[in-house]
Amino acid sequence: MSLALGSLFTFDNSYARDLGELCVPWQAAPAPDPSLVVLNEGLAAELGVDAEALRGPEGVAVLAGSATPEGAASVAMAYAGHQFGGYVPRLGDGRALLLGEVLDTRGHRRDLHLKGSGRTPFARGADGKAPLGPMLREYVVGEAMHALGVPTTRALAVVGTGEQVVRDRMEPGAVLTRVAASHIRVGTFQFAAATRDTGLLRRLADHAIARHHPAAAEADNPYLEFYTGVIEAQAALIARWMLVGFVHGVMNTDNMTISGETIDYGPCAFMDAYDPATVFSSIDHGGRYAYGNQPAIAQWNLARFAETLLPLLDEDTDAAIEKATEVLLSFADRYEHHWRAGMHAKLGLADGAGDQPLVDDLLTLLQEQEVDFTSFFRALSRAAAGDAGPARALAGEGFDAWAERWRRLLPARPGPEIAQDMDRVNPVYVPRNHLVDEALTAATDGDREPLDRLLAVLARPFDERPGLEAYALPAPAGFGAYRTFCGT
Ligand code: AMP
Ligand code: MG
Is the pTM of this model over 0.85? Predict the structure, then answer.
């Protein structure tokens, strides 16, 4: 079915136009009985889309993949990727489609992408479907990250398909509409590079430069400047993850964007007690994607990215390697810079005021005392305002000696003002695993209320509100070790 929904979205599909070799025109599987589960009104407004029209039967049919809006040219995108360190030459959108691109109200180009929309030529024997729970999880965590100020892809909507999908048990099927600056991944470059068609690789790089790092086009070596831009965007992104205790869980090169947005909320979760070894994914036995490994893994992925760009960096391969290596090695300093600036803000210190041992010693204390990462920094702002009780209660007696050093470095301003600034960067509310689980289970059983409440809480993560105390607490002891699952 093709609908005249030109007024709903105005598509301009530059990816399919510029890079036809990297995608396959494809249609979504029709959903037998689509129904809207959740619509992101704020994001719809940002896209300049009429939310009421999206709620109507035609809008829901589009969001389910059952109807193709006018101007859409849906394609499955090809990509490769290193998964847990092993190279897979052909991944691609196995259960997803790029519907098209739209210009949002600020003139920024955004991809509309359906996930869970049926098998494609990249499905590799899998069913192409997605259960409702994991799609809602992507919606919730993406919105939480957005509200926390972390660059991220976001969900415009989740619709139920009216069909059951087979996992451990039968589950209601769903389609998520993802909005992203683009879906170009490190894995997209790996796929293009593997074709050995340098013209194609160059077109992909030029396309990515135009969309994400336009200033690079003016540089002496645009592709080196582009690489530098991606390194910088990822260094900033990973630092933001670390500062809020986010564990992505599956940092394969196909899940790393060129735009610097977080993508693919699968086995991700927020850390409770501070521990660099924190892993949630049931399949990450070696802890490759543990919280504390994320910066090193990002750099590893960016080395794989550099390998794809070599033919564009210099005609001479050795010279290309030398140029790329120099930029790659700047990742550590760039990451350190963002992490340190962020940590200083979390601690209420002027940038550059604190010393590294102060931060390291705090993290050691938090780890030894198994302190809840999110709660601690809010308690610390109470200490800045004059009440050290909550922080001491969390971190134990060792807190006082550390706090004495910390206080000496605080700016000469009234404590309550410092506390206010700290509260602007240290969230009270993050999507805690037990709360997300509870909301998704209820929603899957048809009760939307816990999900709506959770979304409302997470939309203002820095703004402590009476009555929401339970949302600020770590999981009850009975919740146990949390496990998340891939391939959902
Ligand atoms: P992800 O773990 O979501 O990043 O997916 C990794 C790869 O597996 C991608 O190529 C996906 O398109 C593909 N994939 C994951 N789940 C399915 C599914 N149910 N059907 C088809 N392909 C899938
Ligand atoms: Mg993925």
Answer: yes
